[in-house]
Amino acid sequence: MIRLYDSATKEVVPLEQRDDGKVSIYVCGPTVYGPPHIGHGRSVLVYDILRRYLMWLGLDVTFVSNITDIDDKIINRANREERQWSDIATKCESVWWQAMDRLDALRPDKTPRATEYVDQMVQLIADLVDAGKAYETTDGVYLSVEEIDGYGLLAQQSLEDLRAGGGERELVGVEKRHTADFALWKVSKPDEPSWPSPWGDGRPGWHTECVVMSLDLIGEGFDLHTGGLDLMFPHHENERAQAVALGKPFARHWMHHGFVELEGEKMSKSLGNVHNLLDLTDEYDPRAYRLLVLQSHYRSPMELTDESLGHALAAMDRLDAFARRTAELDGEADPEVLEQFRQAMDNDLDTAKALDLLFRAVRDANTALDSDDRDAAAAATGAAHQIAGALGLRLGGEEADVPDEIMALARERGQARTDKDFALADSLRDQITAAGWSIEDSSDGPVLTPVK
RNA sequence: GCGCGGAUGCCCGAGCGGCCUAAGGGAGUGGCCUGCAAAGCCAUGAUUCGCGGGUUCAAAUCCCGCUCCGCGCUCCA
Asked: Residue A244: which residues within 8 A CB-CB, separation 6 or more?
């Protein structure tokens, strides 16, 4: 069984499943108020890789990722730009999916939107109030964290230390009983979007959204809850607190991934060094980013530079060249390699090791082909394709349609080579190159590929 | 201030007590192959793992201190 680091226990433990053969995963999705940045990209890729691997193992995976389509940030932007908040949410959501598609991430099985769940959120908050775990103030409803067993589990800090805090805490909710108490319901100001509730018209707090949606769609005691390191506290802590307060079993396992860094600095909006994910995928083959994500461990910080992206691109070229060369081969994947792959992945998603195995398989296939051992080549090739597939790494790129004029030049060059007129052949090759194509002479004739 | 994590070759990054004379990728160099290339293959590269102590028969891996970096304690993947 796959073993993963659990942020709650700080140990690598088997991912126990609630139901045999099935895995339920809830990933905290984006708040749609702006374009996704490369940090979102890593998040999406990490969990896409996890999901594909579990599916490759033959498990029945239910993957839920929400869209937070109502939030202060959306409202603020709407006010600033004098637009409808819902207009911003809709536009940003479509851009989000566009970016995800470019990364070749599988769409979630379900994508609940917060606004579709307001009734259920109101119900949950009412239950918390009835249970004496939440209280009403003039600006909303708050959860009393002192009432929660084990609050601070994910924060890894005592309530006392949390209270001591950094000091820049915003002075919202001055009626709060404890600084760590958080809003379940926010009474809205005039002109703000609102929904009716027993505590006045308003909107749900962020932390309430994810508990309600996860429990509704994958149920109590679901298997895995994931997100970025920054969501551990307070967001996940607070989701859990609500479930605990109502005696509902929540996520059995917590997984958090590390940040993308740009030259040693965390990339965040406040630093202004945001790299738009769509810009990244415009400029680079998105597979290069996936490769980089695979190369580093999901919990480690990851450095992202033009240089590292360039290296990844070169590595992709190597994989693509391999795929082209082995396109005709067909055979059973080497079971020993697959077993090693499984062991690596089961060990807290050791994707770096998995890539190691992939590249070794590629080299083995090439070597076997060089010595005309087609059986060995086919076994290694099969393993390479299995691994790449399980990691969501598409090899070979698209079959390029070679334009007639390029084909004509290639044919002319072939004739020139047969005639041993190498000066002409070389000048034809120069023309082909200038037109944006590369030509390789393989044993099966020339291979034309567009230069990216 | 409190809590958590990181520092490995030219670059990115695995490894987390002996199998490390430290994966894999990229870049470099030399060779094989090729009409020449490209692709591919082979070879080469850290006597060393931020710094200083310590534990151990044995440490990149454990402990202590220091330096630098990141994350959380506030909205954030």
From this structure: A148, A149, A150, A250
pLDDT tens-digit profile of A115-133?
Answer: 999 999 999 999 999 999 9
**A246: which 2 tokens?**
């109502």
Residue A264 and residue A252: Cα distance in Å, rounded?
34
Q: What phi and psi values does residue A14 have, to the nearest 5 degrees?
A: -60, 140
Q: How far is the CA of A56 from the C1' of B30 (A)?
A: 43
Cis peptide before A234 (omega within 30 of 0): yes
Q: Identify nearest nucleotide to residue A271 by CA to C1′ distance.
A: B76
Nearest to A218 by CA among A27, A16, A21: A27
Q: Which nucleotide is nearest to A172 (CA to C1')?
A: B74
CA A135 to chain centre: 36
Between CA A413 and CA A404 the distance in angstroms is: 14
In this prediction the pTM is 0.92
For residues A189, A191, A194, A199, the Cα torsion angle rounded to the nearest 10 degrees is 30
Contact of A368 with A374, CB cutoff 8 Å: yes
Q: How far is the CA of A342 from the C1' of B21 (A)?
A: 29
CB A211 within 8 A of CB A235: no
Structure tokens at A91: 């536009």
CA distance from start to end of chain A = 41
Which of A61, A28, A186 has the alpha carbon at shortest distance from A118?
A186
Which protein residue's Cα is closest to nucleotide B74 at C1'?
Answer: A169
Query: A411 CA to B25 C1', in Å?
Result: 36
Determine the distance between A437 (CA) and B42 (C1') in angstroms.
29
Dist CA A21 CA A231 (whole Å): 28
Q: Report CA Rg, chain A.
A: 26
What is the per-residue pLDDT for A147?
87
pLDDT band at residue A446, thresholds of 50, 70 and 90? confident
d(CA A270, CA A273): 8
In sign, the C-alpha dihedral spanning A77, A83, A89, A92 is: negative
